[in-house]
Fold:
Amino acid sequence: MVGSIMPFMTYLSDPVGTSEHPLLILVQDRLGIDTPFGMALLLGLTSIGVIAISSTLLFLRAYAIARFTTMRIHTISSRLLSSYLQRPYEYFLGRNSGDLGKRILAETNEISGSFLQPAAEMISSLIAATFIMGFLVYINPTATLSGASLVLFCLCWNLPHGQKLSDTHRRATRHG
Structure:
């Protein structure tokens, strides 16, 4: 969302210098915008539109994850109840049916909170990151790939060293 504001802020800071940009000239010619105010208005409204679309997509993502998780809870709860109800009659003689319902809900909520929702959020974040990386490679492949390789190098270098630092810290806090 911050990236959508930058062209607008750049134009506001220097309308004359940025009006020589080929893309802005093309937009001005196509839309018939003659004044700097008209171009600032267009860029401002475009920024607001991008922010609104981004917020809507974030809302839809959260809704889809919540719906997916809720539907999986329903499916798992139904299967657990079905498996409990297939047990012999003697199994239920010494048990309270209210405890059975609480147990099913507790187990499914545990599965949902510890696995399903984080997994769905991770998958959606990976999809978004893939599209962002693809867009960045399309815009400037050299800078994107060099930046990505630098981040990968730092991660690969930090993994063994970070483990050593963590072990050293654990030993120091245990003895101190």
